[in-house]
Amino acid sequence: MRKTRIVLRIRVYREVYTFQPSKYFKENWGSPFITMFMLLLLLAAGYLSMGLEKVANLLAEYAYYSLVIGVVLQLVCYMRCRGG
User: Fold this and answer.
1) d(CA 61, CA 67)
2) DSSP letter assigned to residue 2
3) Whose CA is closest to 25, among 2, 52, 6?
4) Domain map of the chain by residue range?
5) Phi/psi of residue 67, nearest 5 degrees
6) Per-residue model confidence as pLDDT tens digits over 42-75
């Protein structure tokens, strides 16, 4: 089976910028957790607007745990890539 790659190319004036999500997530360990934080917080806001406060609080709690894990992993990745 052939493996597909997602590549985003953006042309700004004469420069072409390439974004490869698989490479980005390998270099930035915490980014999936930080992305999950944002999604969970949006879901929590949606549930809160529907009046489901208990579910919203639980989702917000998991979102903040995800943010903490993501920030710690980003710091570890930064220290490792920096050579420190």
Assistant:
1) 10
2) P
3) 6
4) 28-82
5) -65, -45
6) 999 999 999 999 999 999 999 999 999 999 999 9
